[in-house]
Design goal:
The chain has 379 residues and is mainly alpha-helical. It is built from 15 helices and four strands.
Length: 379
């Protein structure tokens, strides 16, 4: 135990700069959370262009229907201006009322339907088209009832507006909005954590390489220190080093009052388990690889590719089936699987994920210990 503690203190003393970096990264992750949590908010008002070539009571009523009943922002102008707005994606669609629209309604014709122009805003296009179809159908009923009399049609249209139940556009529930914004920030923060933690703990692998080059590693191997003592000492230093980063993030979230809204304790356990995996991986790289360039290459490739496969940047179900299958061999997948499980309401989703992460960590620690013991017996 004494040898382990001495190795721990020695390693910690040699990583003073990494301690500061860990604290700075923790503060950076807090900023990341605030940025991404603020991105999710109330949906923007749908903006539509409106061209009235009919100048009738029906076209005027349609404008009121879109603005007041559907809650859209109506943008008027000539065709060239609105087409430019559509191309620049400042409006979702253009509604054009053709000349003779009302007269055709009174004559029970459908030669001049409402025109809808849109680009790639398919979701809003579907809803706007459905609303326009319903609205046109109601006008056709009024036109048939007026029997071609424009004055009667105008009276029926005004009466229908007064008695219509209307459409109520309701904003999403505020508590749901807050829940989504918190998890949006949390998932983004954890995605950055998966990548940055690997780069941070890379310093442990570099220390092992330095020990091998300057003879410190050889002297430890020749001493009576057990492999488990050496592995444990370096591991404890790396664990404390990375732990500082998570303490800053979790502490910040608790201070701003999210302790009762987000499962911070469960997320913290997952993070600790993942840190053990990363530290074990660093030990293996430090004992098996030959130079710093190779270590850096392995860590960069692992951090980016495994995080991509594991769902740190986007939910893995959006990926091809092959990637989804391969993702199961990465610790990042099981970490994010537990996070997304809690996000979707499964409070115990972190338990199997934490167990699998611990198995990954155990595997790396055993490999590191065997590597150290094999080198020592080979002298």
């Amino acid at each position: 135990m004494r040898k382990t503690f001495l190795l721990f203190m020695s390693t910690l003393a040699r990583t003073r700069m990494l301690v500061l970096i860990s604290l700075a990264v923790g503060a950076l992750l807090c900023v990341v959370y605030l940025l991404f949590a603020s991105v999710y908010g109330a949906p923007e008002v749908v903006k539509i262009g409106y061209i009235d070539n009919d100048a009738s009571a029906s076209s005027a009523d349609l404008k009121v229907y879109c603005a007041e009943k559907l809650g859209m922002e109506v943008v008027e102008g000539d065709e060239a201006f609105l087409n430019n707005e559509l191309v620049e994606k400042r409006i979702s669609a253009i509604i054009e009322v053709p000349e003779g629209f009302e007269s055709d309604l009174l004559a029970a014709k459908s030669d001049n339907p409402l025109l809808l122009t849109s680009l790639d805003d398919y979701e809003n296009q579907v809803f706007i088209t459905a609303y326009l179809d319903v609205y046109t159908s109601s006008l056709q009923v009024l036109g048939q009832a007026a029997q071609g009399d424009g004055a009667v049609y105008a009276e029926l249209l005004a009466s229908a507006d007064d008695k219509a139940a209307g459409i109520e556009v309701v904003n999403p529930d505020e508590s749901r909005q807050r829940y989504e914004s918190m998890w949006t920030g949390m998932v983004a923060t954890l995605g950055f954590f998966l990548i940055i933690s690997m780069f941070l703990v890379q310093g442990i692998a570099n220390l092992l390489l330095e020990d091998r080059r300057n003879g410190t590693y050889q002297r430890i191997r020749c001493s009576n220190a057990l492999p488990v003592e050496y592995v444990a000492g370096v591991c404890m230093a790396g664990f404390v080093l990375a732990l500082l980063m998570m303490v800053v993030v979790v502490g910040f979230l608790a201070i701003i009052g999210l302790g009762g809204s987000l499962p911070l304790m469960e997320i913290g356990v997952l993070c600790l388990c993942f840190l053990l995996v990363v530290i074990g991986f660093a030990l293996v790289c430090g004992l098996a690889l030959k130079n710093n360039t190779t270590v850096m290459t392995v860590f960069i490739a692992s951090a980016t590719i495994f995080s991509l496969l594991g769902g740190a940047w986007f939910p893995i179900e959006y990926a091809p089936k092959v990637m989804q299958a391969v993702a199961h061999i990465t610790p990042q997948f099981w970490f994010m699987d537990g996070v997304y499980g809690m996000y979707h309401g499964n409070a115990n989703a972190w338990i199997p994920s934490a167990g699998i992460l611990l198995l990954f960590a155990l595997l790396f620690f055993l490999i590191a210990a065997i590597r150290f013991a094999g080198n020592r017996n080979a002298r």
